[in-house]
């Protein structure tokens, strides 16, 4: 015959499991929702720390960009796909690039430095980027279907300076911009989700003057949490991505492989309004490159850590729901 203590433990286990079942969340379907003419404002920041080992010498660089971006819903089709006109209300950048020194840009100023190696390359680029209107087509699940406007806005300035093209990176093409803007949204699967469910987002694309990008992001729905009097849904993510670098521009070539060694991210989504509230991610990449320039061959070992944050500005003007 079971002891009273054993019976009590068994009873508590039954009670606990019953309570868990009673409070378990129902499966949820996640979708973005927009109203025509609606305007949402997001604060977006990206910071990068990079070390390149060139012939045994470490060259360290740091780079950060902060944006305040307005997204206006220009149109919505019958399937719920939205075209968002994205405009920078403010754009700032700070960089420290090894021996090239420090550079700063502020879109609200008219006296940004256009002299020196960095100023001559970066100022025209950031002026064009900060004033461009980028059209992002987004599916209800958060998939970035197309990006137009950035490549066109940068076309002239990219021709003027080889370093400008290097600083632009993937932004020099709409395909590269599409991959970058995917970081601004959380993409959901077609299926409903319960806490603990996972889904994968494959990545396969070729970015001109960058190379082939391949890999995947694995997302996990963690459940709900309360914040500021509302129920938000939390999703974590990690990525496994490889870039086969293939650059050939203005007499300089670079080949090699860059691999993601660490990755983590967290997103909060308000499903009652269909809006992304925040998203943060940190990734670390490393790899070996071979650069050929001016008849010299330089082996480079590169390590880079990037942090990306996006947050809905709650006091922004928006349509109430």
Largest sheet: 12 strands, antiparallel
Radius of gyration using CA atoms only: 23 Å
> What is the count of β-strands?
12
- CATH secondary-structure class: Mainly Beta
Q: Estimate the mean pLDDT confidence.
A: 87
Mind telling me which CATH architecture this is? Answer: Roll
Q: Assign the CATH topology.
A: Lipovitellin-phosvitin complex, beta-sheet shell regions
Helical proportion, percent range: 10-25%
Distance between the termini: 60 Å
Specify the overall morphology.
globular
Which blocks of ≥5 consecutive residues have pLDDT under 50? Answer: 1-23, 316-320
Count of individual domains: 1
Q: Strand portion, in percent?
A: over 45%
Helical run tally: 5
């Amino acid at each position: 015959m079971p002891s009273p203590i054993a019976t009590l433990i068994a009873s508590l286990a039954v009670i606990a499991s019953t309570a868990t079942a009673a409070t378990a969340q129902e499966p949820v379907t996640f979708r973005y929702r927009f109203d025509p003419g609606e305007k949402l404002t997001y604060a977006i920041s990206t910071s990068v720390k990079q070390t390149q080992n060139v012939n045994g010498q470490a060259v360290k660089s740091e780079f950060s960009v902060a944006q305040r971006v307005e997204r206006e819903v220009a149109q919505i089709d019958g399937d719920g796909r939205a075209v968002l006109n994205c405009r920078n209300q403010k754009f700032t950048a700070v960089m420290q690039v090894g021996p090239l020194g420090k550079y700063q840009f502020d879109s609200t100023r008219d006296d940004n430095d256009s002299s020196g190696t960095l100023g001559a390359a970066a100022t025209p680029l950031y002026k064009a980027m900060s004033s461009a209107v980028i059209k992002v087509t987004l599916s209800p699940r958060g998939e970035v279907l197309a990006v137009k406007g950035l490549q066109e806005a940068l076309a002239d300035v990219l021709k003027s300076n080889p370093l400008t093209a290097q600083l632009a990176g993937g932004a020099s093409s709409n395909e590269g911009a599409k991959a970058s803007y995917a970081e601004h949204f959380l993409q959901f699967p077609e299926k409903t989700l319960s806490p603990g469910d996972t889904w994968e987002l494959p990545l396969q694309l070729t970015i001109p003057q960058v190379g082939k990008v391949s890999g995947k992001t694995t997302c996990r729905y963690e459940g709900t949490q309360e914040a500021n009097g509302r129920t938000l849904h939390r999703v974590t993510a990690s990525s496994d991505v490889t870039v086969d670098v293939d650059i050939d521009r203005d007499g300089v070539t670079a080949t090699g492989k860059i691999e993601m060694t660490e990755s983590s991210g967290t997103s909060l989504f308000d499903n009652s309004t269909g809006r992304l509230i925040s998203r943060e991610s940190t990734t670390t990449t490393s790899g070996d490159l071979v650069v050929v320039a001016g008849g010299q061959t330089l082996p480079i070992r590169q390590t880079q850590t990037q942090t990306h944050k996006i947050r809905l500005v709650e006091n922004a003007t928006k349509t109430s729901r």
